[in-house]
Amino acid sequence: KVGMNVQDLSKLLHRDTAEIIKKLFLLGIVTNQNQSLDEDTIEILAADYGIEAKQKEEEDLADIDRFFDDEKVNEENLEPRAPVVTIMGHVDHGKTTLLDYLRKTNVTEGEAGGITQHIGAYQARLDGRLITFLDTPGHAAFTEMRARGANVTDITVLVVAADDGVQPQTIEAINHAKAAGTPVIVAVNKIDKEGANPDQVMNQLMAYDLVPEEYGGSTIFVKISAKFGQNVDQLLEMILLEADVLELKADPTVPARGSVIEARLDKGRGPVSTVLVQQGTLHVGDPVVVGNTYGRIRTMQNENGQDLDEAKPATPVQITGLNAVPAAGDRFVVMADEKSARAAGEEREKRAREEVRNSSSVVTLDTLFNTM
Ligand code: GDP
Ligand code: MG
Questions:
Q1: pLDDT tens across 95-136, in order?
Q2: Which of 123, 192, 218, 280 could bond to 225 as cystine, CB 3.0-4.6 Å?
Q3: Sheet with 220-223, edge to edge strand ranges
């Protein structure tokens, strides 16, 4: 181990310090018990005792991405989890209307007395099964999260108004879903409207490889009216069907990790963040590293303002207890203790600052170049 001194080494080898010092002296190295030894010296000395000294590979605590490896979950502990759905589509095609309808009619149990709050995500329920909706439908949020490496969406619901057809942001949404590799379910919306032409939407989308089953393709289309709730349950059914195909699973037994959906600074409560748990179970009191900050989960609430003690995979929760405001798309991981959470968080903050400094010098050069 780097930085090990004679005393540490003698303890490790179960020898007297005096004996070690003598041996080192015979090797031509003059030391005292507090002197730290370099790797080579330790190796030579250990070899003399017939022991192979190997430097333990330092774990980079700040590298929280390594916690996301699937290898770190136990195959035997995998349990089905709720699908995470993002709704996308052209402006005014009915994304917000659909999200609002779902929230009103399919909210989860026990919300009585709770105050619905917009925390960036919520869970809807159909036949006792949960579906997690991210309710920041902006394409920018989706791209920003993906740019930060957060691939939280399992299924994209593409809303296309039947009276308007495929529009620029419809195509943009298709491209985002393709880039993210998520299956697309098409919700042909506003079928209640006069002049609605769902068949035309289906025809248009074929040019983008979204071919309905009745035309020999594999894309699910549901004709809905988000405003009146027509066929919305059918849409949920289709989402669950798609989820079954994807066999979404997670291990609730490992230390929790996931991604930030949104975050802000609250005057009274400090940094408030909505996180989506992706593996493991998050508990109140857990020490966490989040993006470039850290903390200990002080409170945890669902979208109905209810306090929770724990949150299982695919559950969105609003948390407090962080030292700073993270960014949407930042990853979080629960650490073994508060000390390592702090160390990792501070190291990540430092590295981020260095990165900014390095990139800003590039910008300066660039700017200089452009003004020449
Ligand atoms: P967004 O921009 O995609 O979020 O679209 P909104 O949900 O804000 O909807 C835009 C407009 O379309 C609003 O005036 C909605 O009331 C209306 N709208 C949304 N869904 C439907 C629908 O199914 N039927 C009808 N008639 N109007 C709808
Ligand atoms: Mg909207």
A1: 999 999 998 886 555 555 556 778 889 999 998 999 999 987
A2: 192
A3: 121-126, 129-134, 84-89, 155-161, 184-189, 220-223
